[in-house]
Amino acid sequence: MALLGGFALSAEAQKVETMPQTSANVGLEPIKQGNWMLGGSIGNIGYSFEGDKFGINLSPRAGYFVTDGLAIGAQANLGFEAIKDVPNVYTYGISPFARYYFPGGASATGRFFGQGDIGIAGSSRGSDVAFAFGLNAGYAHFITQTVALEVMGGYNYSKANINSGNGQSGLGISLGFQIYLPGQR
Fold first, then answer.
1. What is the C-alpha radius of gyration for the chain, rounded to an integer number of angstroms?
2. What residues make up the domain containing 172?
3. CB 3.0-4.6 Å disulfide test: which of 114, 129, 162, 178 passes with 122?
């Protein structure tokens, strides 16, 4: 009995609990000149001002840091929209973007940023491809040295014939992630 008790206490003493990593002190390393960022918004939920419409988008993006804190790149916009009393609409678009990470208000584990994009957009409803742009602000929280979770919100506009009017505009919120890859130095 004493031997079994000893084994039980020994096994309990060797039990190791690990918690998933929730943040990493990265400083400026991920946003240095020459680095790459890959990722995107895994869900963009928005409401349009022009009609009773709900939309969800997937926006993969890739960018290159031309200088510390400033990335330029391209993103695709793929979406689904459910509009009251109208058949579902599938949207698409592509746009170059510029993203700037602000030095003020930052911490060792996160950065505030602003992003602007100008491109083209279209939908399954119309055959026209038209002008689109967006102005967004967000926060990137680094959970490892190379991966950040993001929340971003802002204003987006499209001139494409996506709803019953001649265009759309609205506020949106997106949740996403980015992978930061070191470049050649």
1. 22
2. 27-135+145-181
3. 129
40: its two tokens = 């995107």
Residue indicated by tokens 């990265």? 26
Question: How is residue 9 written in tokens?
Answer: 């206490």
Please report whether residue 88 resides in a domain.
Answer: yes
Q: Give the three-state DSSP class for 19.
A: coil
Cα separation of 179 and 167, whole Å? 33
Average pLDDT over residues 91-96: 92
pLDDT category, 88, cuts 50, 70, 90? confident
CATH number for the domain including 151?
A: 2.40.160.20
pTM of the entire predicted model? 0.78
* pLDDT for position 91: 84
Count of structural domains, the chain = 1
Per-residue pLDDT tens digits for 110-160:
999 999 999 999 888 777 788 999 999 999 999 998 999 999 999 988 776
Q: What six digits make up the tokens of 100?
A: 């700037």
Point out which residues pair with 108 in neighbouring strands. Answer: none
d(CA 121, CA 152): 20
